[in-house]
Amino acid sequence: MQLTELETPALLLDRAKLERNIARMRTQLTSLGGVSHRPHLKTAKSIEVARLVAGAGGPITVSTLLEAERFGAAGFSDILYAVGIAPNKLERVIALRRRGIDLSIVTDNVEAAEAVAAAGREAGEPIPVLIEIDSDGHRAGVRPDQPELLVAIARALSDGAQVRGIMTHAGGSYDARTRPELVRIAAQERDSAVACAETLRAAGFAAPVVSIGSTPTALSATGLDGVTEVRAGVYLFFDLVMHGIGVAAIDEIALSVLTTVIGHQRDKGWILVDAGWMAMSRDRGTANQSLDQGYGLVCDAAGNPFTDLIMIAASQEHGILAIRDGSSAPLPDLPYGTRLRILPNHACATAAQFGEYQVVEDGQVAACWPRFNGW
Amino acid sequence: MQLTELETPALLLDRAKLERNIARMRTQLTSLGGVSHRPHLKTAKSIEVARLVAGAGGPITVSTLLEAERFGAAGFSDILYAVGIAPNKLERVIALRRRGIDLSIVTDNVEAAEAVAAAGREAGEPIPVLIEIDSDGHRAGVRPDQPELLVAIARALSDGAQVRGIMTHAGGSYDARTRPELVRIAAQERDSAVACAETLRAAGFAAPVVSIGSTPTALSATGLDGVTEVRAGVYLFFDLVMHGIGVAAIDEIALSVLTTVIGHQRDKGWILVDAGWMAMSRDRGTANQSLDQGYGLVCDAAGNPFTDLIMIAASQEHGILAIRDGSSAPLPDLPYGTRLRILPNHACATAAQFGEYQVVEDGQVAACWPRFNGW
Fold first, then answer.
1. What is the pLDDT averaged over residues B212-225?
2. Chain B neighbours among A 54-93 (CB < 8 Å)?
3. Shortest distance, CA A85 to any CA of chain B (angstroms)
4. Rounded Cα distance, A38 and A79, in Å
5. What is the pLDDT of residues B312-332, one digit of tens each?
6. Rg, chain A, Cα only
7. What percentage of chain B reaches a pLDDT higher than 90?
8. Which of A332, B275, B278, B363 has the maximum number of C-beta atoms within 10 A of its C-beta?
9. Any CB–CB contact under 8 A between A155 and chain B?
10. What pLDDT shows up at residue A250?
């Protein structure tokens, strides 16, 4: 199918870029001693993308139990659900494990560990658990300076669950702006995770897994000794936030929204399109970076960016395009009906607004890959 | 079903509040001389909600052709698609009209008018069009001081389409903060629309419809002489942005996200929950209001707000709750596993993150109403 046959807005996925991004991460992990990859599929939520990056069976990481069910049904049998477990989800976790899926879960507190152990005992199904570590103070997790808490959680798990190891996500890396900063955060992520695993081992727990995450740290790490797996995921598509952090070129962004010009406010230098925040999402992740990309960077239908043309405002189904503040770039002449592509701030958020990808190969729509949103 | 049987996150819709909000708008429009209501269903995207507010057949307003198709199939036969038309959508518009749905569309430029007229001529199906007016400079539309453009668009439509009238959306009302300001914007919306309709009539076009929109202006208008219909929609659910504008009480917000406590960072005063931006959306519509509500205001499971407890940060599937900056309110004791409700900034954006509503009546889940997302 031609791109011109698609109704707009539509979510485009450039297959060649996706494959190049996968190869780039593979090379990086090989250079770090061949550490295992457990790609995070919260961005892609697609069986086809999962097969490209993780082969037929995994290992993979997910952010919802719906993902675990869908990927599990498609043959992925080694799955980490990487969000601290809520008690109301344990029944579904056990049901997934009984279907033969090696689903592991995460927690960072004794109360949850007790709930998991009790559910595992009751079901006769010891659930494997990674204890979450907070390596950079940005969200959940046991701090590395809380070894007593770490061991208390492991003890609470031991009768009914399995202490599989340690996981951390250096989300603070999203605020990094320089390569040395990224290298430092990556080292801190590794050091914290490995130290906590050693604390567990010294207390008598095998803790075989040391799992770290985040695209910026995975691409910036200079050594991963002691780490057993890397969970990066957004690198599959990349986005303007990753570009702003300095880990992706614009040309590596595989995801875009196809849209159509529906009008102009010529005296204001505005071009109106039929993609608003319902298509782009409300994510403004570049707002605090050195280059604010508005709701996205505008490209022609073939994917070539216009200089400094961004989506400056979005309502539900309208986007307003204009030259960014401070730029003297000329406004391109884009008549009514012109098709454009918008590169997103945040691939996870933009992709979540759509039910499927239009997969572009050699400038044509070669396939339509479904996504699974919701929980 | 009990609320405690729901897995989290889940989208709750309080039916009693929804019905009270519908009654409030009905009373308001009656007090304004009984102007017709064409509710905007871009927020609800639900057949059941549409039937409560618009009876069996409409009239209704939609933001996507998917909504037009779904509502059309459910018996709603008078539908306005209120986004400037893109040429690639005309075929689908004609197909809908041929199914007996009186679907009207919108544009604000001569090029689009020519495309619509040509498509209508070719199909032998004259498409009814409202010409969009820009009453407050915030987005699309012909300015009231451009009567020549207005008439040129009407002329371009006349051979192949029908000039049904004028529409405007006073989106600038979302920036209003006081009642007198809202009254002024509502009057300006009315005056602009009516003046433009008179321009068309003076040029020989019947232009029977004068359609205005926006919840803040509909609830603030003191007179709507010359207006034939009002398209408000977000008032069905209301949200924190509408509360910040001053047109809704917290107790009128019918939509919330049910979530569960999954952990704490006690030294920071943080409570972690299993609803992040994937559930709340990335909408930060209150960020520029006098009271920034973060990603939402936290209530207990019955819907009673805690003082100053908001979602201060959100990642994909994690929310961080804390007392808002500057408040001395105590952090409530909310142990692991506690269920909470989060009131959203923007009902349209939060609802769009879910595939269905869990409809709450008398504290129980009485029904599950599907939504239709996408295009």
1. 94
2. 63-65, 83-89, 92
3. 6
4. 8
5. 999 999 999 999 999 999 999
6. 22
7. 95
8. B275
9. no
10. 98
Note whether A277 contacts B: Cβ–Cβ < 8 A: yes
Using DSSP, state whether A265 is helix, strand or coil: strand
For residue A68, which of A91, A86, A93 has the smallest C-alpha distance? Answer: A93
Shortest distance between the Cα of B33 and any Cα of chain A, in A, equals 30
Q: Which of B63, B262, B283, B311 should one mutate to test binding to chain A, selecting the residue with the greatest count of A CBs within 10 A? A: B262
Q: What is the ipTM of this complex?
A: 0.97
The residue length of chain B stands at 375
Region for B10 from its dihedrals, namely left if φ exceeds 0, alpha if ψ lies in -120 to 50, beta otherwise? beta
pLDDT (average), residues B173-190:
90
- Report strand pairing: A60-62 vs A78-84: parallel
Q: For the segment A84-138, what is each residue's pLDDT rounded down to a tens digit? A: 999 999 999 999 999 999 999 999 999 999 999 999 999 999 999 999 999 988 8
Question: Is B336's CB within 8 Å of A87's CB?
Answer: yes
Average model confidence (pLDDT) across chain A: 96
CA distance A33 to chain B (A): 30
| Residue A31 parent element (H or E) | helix A15-31
Between the CA of residue B173 and those of B180, B321, B361, what are the distances in Å?
Answer: 11, 30, 32
Measured between beta carbons, the chain B residues lying within 8 angstroms of A95 are none
Cβ of residue B354 closer than 8 Å to a chain A Cβ: yes
Chain B hits for A86, Cβ within 8 Å: 8, 260-262, 274, 337
Residue A296 near residue A344 (C-beta atoms within 8 A): yes
Looking at the DSSP bridge assignments, the partners of residue B167 are B132, B211
DSSP string for A240-253: HHHHHHTS--GGG-
A28 vs A216: CA distance, rounded Å: 12
Instruction: Inform me whether the C-beta atom of residue A282 falls under 8 Å from chain B C-beta atoms.
Output: yes
Query: In this complex, is the C-beta atom of A269 within 8 Å of any C-beta atom belonging to chain B?
Result: no
CB contact under 8 A, B337 and A9: no
Q: Which amino acid, residue A95?
A: A
- Per-residue burial over A126-141, b = 16 or more CB atoms within 10 Å of its CB, e = otherwise: bbbbbbbbbbbebbbb
Confidence of residue A63 (pLDDT cuts 50, 70, 90): very high
Find chain B residues with C-beta within 8 A of A373's C-beta: 353, 355, 373
Report the SS3 class of residue B207: coil
Element (H, E) at A288: none
- Of the given ranges (A163-167, A353-357, B173-177), which has the lowest mean pLDDT? B173-177
- Give the pTM: 0.97
Nearest to B272 among A140, A263, A335 (CB): A140
From chain B, the residues in CB contact with A355 under 8 A are: 373-374
Q: List, for residues A276-303, the tens digit of each pLDDT value.
A: 999 999 999 999 999 999 999 999 999 9
Cβ count within 10 A of residue B92: 17
- The C-alpha atoms of residue A34 and residue B123 are separated, in whole angstroms, by 62
Taking CB atoms and an 8 Å limit, are A284 and B283 in contact across chains? Answer: no
Give the contacts of A319 (CB within 8 A, at least 6 positions apart). Answer: A259, A272, A273, A274, A275, A276, A279, A280, A295, A296, A311, A313, A342
Q: How confident is the model at residue A305 (pLDDT cuts 50, 70, 90)?
A: very high
Judged by CB atoms closer than 8 Å, whether chains meet at A112 and B139 is answered as no
Q: How confident is the model at residue B58 (pLDDT cuts 50, 70, 90)?
A: confident
pLDDT at position A176 is 85
SS3 A58: coil
